[in-house]
């Protein structure tokens, strides 16, 4: 019993390490070997894969659960993408995109396996990892806002001169939308962590992190993330009130809503919020809307042209705005997870992905606080899938997909009132 407990704690600490380094991503020990971008997180994947997968139990899930079929679907997705490489013109770009998919699936499987090995303490360790990732990211974001400097990245390199003098938070993510994406998806788990820990210091840290988050989301200029954040807070508070327990969660919801008023003030509600819902002078709101509409039209066009089989990994992005049937104003990426999958990997792959995510909602136990967190995160994940420039290439997408699909027959053994520390 003691040995089993120790093994689960080791797996849990490893899970924390993977969450934190996954969010930091390529900013920690970046290495390029033969054109392949390796960094500390990917090196960890390679190093620990033999130990984590030595007892591969993910295929032991019940066959009638979404996670069982989604794991098999991931294998099919990788093989289908590999075969597609044989029929595309730009093989190297396609291979890079396919490798990003492979890395994503490896991340998904690694996290699922670690969660399974951690057992009943998985929710605690996963949430702790997200808390630490947020804590590490916050000083970087505040430094960006105060100095107008940023960590190196393609987003900053490609910014026009007029945009370099704006206060904007990116932290370790690939762009501001990506940072907002991470913070919004993290929120439900921070609420959950607050309800299960005993230590006053850790509770205070969680509260402070939750209070700073809406302020930073505001400075990512991710308009839709602001809305989804408020939806998260409202849903969590509603579920807690509906169940008539856990006043902590309700209190957090109320404080966060008040914080939006305090930090943003009337400017946030009036001029500031209006400005966030609009776009800069250089790009009209009509143009921004038209870009997304044209990506959708292009998706429909190429789906028909390929018979629903897709263009092949990375092909849509490599075509270029001027060569697409509908002009996308220099935005090569579709800014939509579903369109990104459908146009490159085919209609049927994209449809299955949507079906699996929606089906996972039915397998969520909303009678527990953890189940409520998973439900809210899944809803937020679906809503935010139409915001970021890319999804398949970012670790955040696959990390949260793993926790969304984490289901095992004994999961109900996770005590809703689990107390740790």
UniProtKB/TrEMBL annotation:
Membrane-topology annotation of the record: Multi-pass membrane protein
O-antigen ligase-related domain segment(s): 209-353
Q: Which InterPro entries match?
A: O-antigen_ligase-rel_domated, WaaL-like
One annotated GO molecular function: ligase activity
Keywords associated with the record: Ligase, Membrane, Transmembrane, Transmembrane helix
Q: Which chain regions cross the lipid bilayer?
A: 12-33, 39-56, 68-88, 100-117, 124-143, 178-194, 201-218, 224-241, 248-269, 342-361, 368-386
Where it sits in the cell: the answer is: Membrane
GO CC annotation: membrane
Pfam families from the entry?
Wzy_C (PF04932)
Q: What is this protein called?
A: O-Antigen ligase
Lineage here is: Bacteria, Pseudomonadati, Bacteroidota, Sphingobacteriia, Sphingobacteriales
